[in-house]
Request: fold
Amino acid sequence: MSDETKDMSRRGFIGAGGAALLGGMVLGTLPLEGKEAAGPGTLPKRWDETYDVVVVGTGFAGLSAAIEARLAGASVLVVEKMPVYGGNSIINGGDFAAAGNSFQKEAGVQDSAELMLKDMMKAGSYLNHPPLARLVAEKSNEALEWCRTYIGAQFTRLNFHGGHSVKRSVQTYNQSGSGLVNPLLAKAKSLGVKVVLRTKMTRLIAGREGRIVGLEVRHGYKWPDEASGTASFIKARRSVVLAAGGFSQNMALRQIHDPRLTPKFESTNHPGATGEAILAACSAGAMDVQMDWIQLGPWTSPDEPGFGHGPQVCERIVGYGLMVDPANGKRFFKETGNRKERADAIIAIGHPVIIVGDSYAIGKQVVPKVLGKAMEVGVVKTFNTLEALAAEYKMPVQPFLDQVARWNGFVEKAKDEDFDCKLFPDSKPTVAGPFYAMRLWPRVHHTMGGLVVNAEAQVIGFDMKPIKGLYAAGEITGGVHGAVRLGSVAMADCVVNGRIAGKNAGGEKAWS
Reply:
């Protein structure tokens, strides 16, 4: 990773952007500084650059698409509007859901693509487009093995995420999406893919019969200065692939679709997750779907900005520790529920809640480096006794102690009679001090809606037909996850569909 990328790392980048959220979106076309604009159905007088395939976005989906397009024989350019590559992918937790993976087999976990699909559909309130969800489930392990064997990414441990029936999420060696983004970028460059930063797409250019033939960009763009950069036209002889992510950081756009998501709800996303590429595609005739399904992560803390360190603690100990309302010291929802269920339950409480784990749960489930960083920034605190923990969060002591005792009884019986939390064979009662606690309050994390695509990753227009020359993959698309995306399925979605988009885009016949 370059020094610049390290500088804008997972926490630093989010922290820096947290105070600079975009309050709105520039919907119009930026001035061309002397160049004649290309209106609908017309082409620019000249192209400044020409490639077979142009990919927008440098995350899991974009880089996977670029690699496959190059392997299909295409010349490939990848553009990224931010000063660093990776988007949300490089700052995620590095968990990849894959049904029937080798880590599961080593651990004796029984799984299948059908079970993963069932979990995805249930979490998605059955609003998932079935062919798209099935595609991700069925190709998830193939995609994971491609990342391991061809790309060279290292995965080292098997994790559980709320809403899954079994442990099926395999995590990168460094507990970060950078563990996959960096190898993807290195592979793409080794194949001759050109990657340029500070290059913002402002619109797609359509030719005859609405075919996408290129795009207008601003080279030298300096986020968030919309007047920065120099206008340029890039011709895409075969196809354009959109993999620019979602719009969690666009306050105006997300409130159009869900007015409840006011500025009181911060976001885990990098500051450039503002959705212009979705709107550009819609302006070019693409159809969108389910844009009002916006996910909040229930594992973030008000004691640190952005995604932070806490989620890697919280999500590791669900099923091993209990979550309580500090106002009364009692549990209020199942700790292993899916993201929407838990986030909604916390928001209904109206104030931050507490998740608690003892030295056994923390020691077994949390990577020491992660725990150290979480404690260093103060998001996780440690206590010698449960009474001291209760006092810190002003909880009524005896009700809290009674609740812990009740939880411990459920763990011993391997059955949660109150909320049906999933308890694992190696879960143990919360009795071994020191005890660890973390405050939780949801943040906007993922936008499930986006562009309508088919199983070939082709973007669908309002005539219900594929838009020629336009593909999309990753969070910019909708329909895969329905109402709720299960944790760690994003990596599978991005790699599976990014590869499909790239292969098909690279295999298109050149339009001229």
Summary: The chain is about 35% helix and 20% strand.
